[in-house]
Structure formats: C-alpha cells, structure tokens
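Anyone? Bumping this.
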Amino acid sequence: MKRINYAIIAHGGAGGISYAMRRRKGLIEAISIGYGMLAQGGSSLDAVEKAAMILEDTTIFNAGTGSSCNLIGDVEMDASLMTSNLHYGAVAAIRNVRNPIHVARLVMEKTDHLLLCADGAIKFARLMGVKYYNPKTRGKMRVWENRRKQPKNSYFQRHRELVHFYGTIGVVALDMNGCIAVATSSGGITMRLPGRVGDTPVIGAGTYVDKNGGVSVTGHGEEIMRHMLAFRAVTLMARHPASVAGRQVINYATKVGCRCGLAGIDNRGQFLCYNNTRAMSWCSIKNGRLKVFTGD
Ligand code: GLY
C-alpha cells in the first residue's frame, strides 16, 4: 500500500507578529495535537477541527474567544470546513458560541446545506446542543472602546485603513488515507458594519480543497472574495507543486492590491505558506519535524 506522508500546517493570521510568544505557544499546541491524531490514523477532518478549536480558544487570535468587535461592539464570527471529497460546512455572522468551527462541522454533517448565517446559525447550534458562550474578551472590548473614541475612526472614513488588524486562523492537514481537510475561522475585521461577512465562510474564497490540495486564506476578506484566492491556489495545484501554486497566487494578490496570506498542502504533502503583509505567523509538522514562525 502506498504510504502517505501525513502532514499539518496552521496559520494565525497575516495581520502582524505582536505577542509572538503567545502565538507560538498556541500554534504549537494546536498543531501538535492535530499531528498526534494524524499519526494515530485519525482523519484530517478531525485533526483540523480539533486544532482550529484550540486556536479559537487561544485568546490571542482573532477567532472564537478574542474575536474582534464590529462597529457596535458585537462579536460576529465566520468559520468553514472542507474536505477533499468536497464536503463543506460553514457559518457566517454567528454569535454567542465558543467554537464556530464546530458548528460549521455540524452544518456539514447534519444538514443538506453548506452555509448557515446569523440567527439561523445560532438557532441551529442550540438545536445541536451547542451552549451559549460569550467570546468577547476585555482586551478586544478595550480596543473597540479606544477606536470608538477616535473622531476620525468611523467605518466609512477608515475601513480600508483598519483592515490590517486581521488574525484569522486556519489549519490544513493531509491524513494517512490521502484525504485533505481545511478549517478556517475568523472574528472578521475590527469596526466592520454589523452583518458584514468576510471570505472565511465563502467556499473558494477563504477555504478550498479538492483532490490536488487544500488552502486556508487570511487577510482582507472583501478582496479575497473578489479574487477567490483559495480556489485559485487549489486549481493551480492540479498542474504545479504547492509552493509554485502559492507563489503564483500571492504574486497575483499583490498585483491586484489584496493584502493576504495563505497556507496549504498538496496531495504529496508539500506545504505552501506565503503572505504579502507585514508578517504572518504559522506552524507546520511533517515527518515529525516542527517548523514555526511567529516573528520572535
Ligand atoms: N479574512 C477575514 C475577514 O476578512 O473577515
């Protein structure tokens, strides 16, 4: 039987490298647990969901607990999961759950739909036994309070300038059976309009995977959606190794003015990890070897 080179990569957003030590700790913990599951023959879907849940629970990232606030101080979160057999589940603008990525998996497995949003997604989560949880942290409330006080800091004047505060998380894994899965989860962009949905839950924008490879994207959601970056990268993996596909997509993104980062794996276990922002934190494990970059 062909031996598959199982592997896993995670990113912690392309918004910067502050709090490097805490990012490093969170990424290493998440990915080590995910890799351990793959090493025991677990599925890439279980591995990416578990690793993404750990990152959502790590308050330093903009996903799950610690998500950024919108213009009126609410936390609305987006998340999606996809597997190389084209199963997909996502939630958009969901509130008051601890792990949006888990609700996305429930959408994938318990419904005939791909994406549930806002109140419908919350009602579905409760029906599935997901408990009320407040993901707002004091730190993110302080950021919101400070920005609100700045007179020029209204959404309409400053939206484009504010978009470097992103820290979406994403995990991509290849398992022993050759299945690839991708999980992406985001607290969105600070001071966005209520109801705004980013690229994360949009199939082909923030998340995509097929038999050739899988990619999770982070960055400016509106531009990522416009250019369908995850789908673009995965399509290129049919003809090129992951690193070449990733390089082509980041060059394209730079050309069209989309600030972003992407991480992924092709079906041979080769990684891609590129960004055109100040920095992107990431962590990968293959053949037992861990690599991590958080800027420290
Ligand atoms: N990439 C995350 C967002 O724009 O919402």
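Late reply, but here is one note on the structure posted above: The mean pLDDT is 93.
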